[in-house]
Amino acid sequence: MARLTSEFWVSAWLRQAAHDGLIAVLRRRGAAEAGAIFVKLDRLDGTAVLYGPAPQTLASDDGVRRFQLLLDADPLTVEDRVTRELRFDGDLWLVEIENRAGDPRLELVSD
């Protein structure tokens, strides 16, 4: 099954979050076709989480983008990690969502 472009996936994810009454924003636009997508979740309690693309070995062939937990810490520590990821991959997408319930609205892989 063909995978959606990063641009299309991010657009749909942001639209769904808004429809659900959540605040989600595009912080950085990456490569339209296949830029890696990172999601920062702010729990609004002084903690944040960063999710990144799951390794291909953990992904399935159904075309669904899957994510893995990269870091669960205070917001400044998460921002430092985002900065390092940007230095490594300048084509990445970064979206951020605020959700007190801690639900990133992503397909997650288990370790």
Short description:
By secondary structure, the protein is of the alpha+beta class. The protein contains 2 helices and 5 strands; from the N terminus they run H-E-E-E-E-H-E. A 5-stranded mixed beta sheet has the order 1-5-2-3-4.
Structure description:
The protein has a 5-stranded mixed β-sheet. It starts with 5 loop residues before the first helix and ends in a 13-residue tail after the last strand. Strand 2 (37-42) and strand 3 (48-53) form a beta hairpin. The protein is α+β, with helices and mostly antiparallel strands. It has a domain at 23-98: Protein of unknown function (DUF1491) (hypothetical protein tt1805, 3-Layer(aba) Sandwich). The chain has helices spanning 6-19, 75-88; strands spanning 23-28, 37-42, 48-53, 67-73, 93-98. The longest helix has 14 residues, at 6-19.
What is the total tally of β strands?
Answer: 5
What's the CATH architecture of one domain?
Answer: 3-Layer(aba) Sandwich
Oligomer: single chain
Structural class: alpha+beta
CATH class of one domain, anyone? Alpha Beta
Largest pleated sheet: 5 strands, mixed
Poorly predicted residue ranges: none
Number of helices: 2
Task: Give me the CATH superfamily of one domain.
Answer: Protein of unknown function (DUF1491)
Instruction: Give the integer mean of the pLDDT values.
Output: 90
Query: What's the Cα radius of gyration?
Result: 13 Å
* Side-by-side strand order of the widest sheet: 1-5-2-3-4
- Helicity, as a percent range: 25-40%
Helix-strand topology string: HEEEEHE
